[in-house]
């Protein structure tokens, strides 16, 4: 009895081992077929958007709940375009926090770097949409869970697997998140990971405009590529963003690419060897939330697939045309993540736009 029982156990063990080997082979296949990993670091929160455009927060009768936070939007944008994305950050151990992590998972974003905080709530932002689709913000973070990300919370193993580490500036505003941000950047840099920076200026969150300018510029020289809007160029330089010498005052020698987005006019690009402008797409804007993140997601997806984009101008222009299209599409719906396009939708949009 015991001998056959032992044989049965041995067979079970062998069977389990074979199954495990098959799983590992399948996992390797999936990993090898995937794009290189892009990690987005920072905040994820709930945006409450008025159901009517062109009214103040006080005048709005109702709000639409939408997942948001620039780094999380970028991660979802990459995944929606078929890329390989992960998000690192912290949310509250509450209904909203769990909902946000579920949304990341539904969008095929790796959540191995997400932590839950039992003491602080998930951040909230009320976003007013003016008649032109531009936004004004009111934040509820005192402190919110994302601000409490500690260095010990960081999944360093995940960071070292990345090809690109992308971040904003909101995570630099307060401790302990600031130190965690710097530690994550350092680990990425030491691991040969490319650093991507979109300052994503949100002045209401900083103690003062001067503190914002100083904080944003404090990590400026670490980045391999930077994306700024024309308004952010104006804020950071106190100069005219249309003037090339003003934009180039933001250039540094370690940069592979500096991008300036100009809304529906498109974007300007600057590299060590060439510079230019790629025209945008004119659409009826409903909500500009997430447009820049959709643009960045498209660019990072292209870079993760082929870093020669920095040296070959036609490749860069093609990627930026797609990025402009993604940004434009994103403005045609309310909320950021729900409005992010797939690669197929962006290609169809470009084709139909050219046809018209």
TrEMBL record:
It comes from the Eukaryota. Residues 37-342 form the Carbohydrate kinase PfkB domain. Pathway: Glycan biosynthesis; starch biosynthesis. Keywords: ATP-binding, Carbohydrate metabolism, Kinase, Nucleotide-binding, Transferase. GO terms for biological process: fructose metabolic process. Pfam families: PfkB. This is fructokinase. It comes from Clitoria ternatea (Butterfly pea). The lineage of its organism: Eukaryota, Viridiplantae, Streptophyta, Embryophyta, Tracheophyta.
């Amino acid at each position: 009895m015991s001998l056959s029982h032992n044989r049965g156990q041995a067979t079970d063990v062998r069977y389990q081992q074979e199954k495990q080997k098959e799983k590992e082979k399948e996992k390797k296949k999936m990993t090898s077929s995937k794009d290189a990993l892009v990690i987005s670091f920072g905040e994820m929160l709930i945006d409450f958007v008025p159901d009517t455009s062109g009214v103040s927060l006080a005048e709005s009768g109702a709000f639409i709940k939408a997942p948001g936070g620039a780094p999380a939007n970028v991660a979802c944008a990459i995944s929606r375009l078929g890329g390989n994305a992960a998000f690192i950050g912290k949310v509250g151990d509450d209904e909203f926090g769990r909902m946000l992590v579920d949304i990341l998972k539904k969008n095929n974003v790796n959540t191995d770097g997400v932590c839950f905080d039992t003491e602080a709530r998930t951040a909230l932002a009320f976003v007013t949409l003016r008649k032109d689709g531009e936004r004004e913000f009111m934040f509820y973070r005192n402190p919110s869970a994302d601000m409490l990300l500690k260095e010990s919370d960081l999944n360093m193993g995940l960071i070292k697997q990345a090809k690109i580490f992308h971040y904003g500036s909101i995570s630099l505003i307060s401790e302990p998140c600031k130190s965690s941000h710097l530690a994550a950047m350092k680990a990425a840099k030491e691991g040969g990971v490319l650093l991507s920076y979109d300052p994503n200026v949100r002045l209401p969150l900083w103690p003062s405009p001067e503190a914002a300018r100083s904080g944003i510029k404090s990590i400026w020289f670490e980045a391999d590529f930077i994306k700024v809007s024309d308004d952010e160029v104006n804020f950071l330089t106190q100069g005219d963003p249309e003037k090339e010498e003003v934009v180039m005052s933001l250039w540094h020698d370690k940069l592979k690419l500096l991008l300036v987005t100009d809304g529906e006019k498109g974007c300007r690009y600057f590299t060590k060897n060439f510079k230019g402008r790629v025209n945008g797409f004119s659409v009826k804007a409903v909500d500009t939330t997430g447009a820049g993140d959709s643009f960045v997601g498209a660019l990072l997806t292209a870079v993760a697939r082929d870093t020669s984009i920095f040296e070959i101008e036609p490749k860069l222009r093609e990627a930026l045309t797609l990025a402009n299209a993604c940004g434009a599409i994103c403005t045609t719906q309310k909320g950021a993540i729900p409005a992010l396009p797939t690669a197929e939708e962006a290609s169809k949009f470009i084709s139909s736009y050219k046809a018209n």
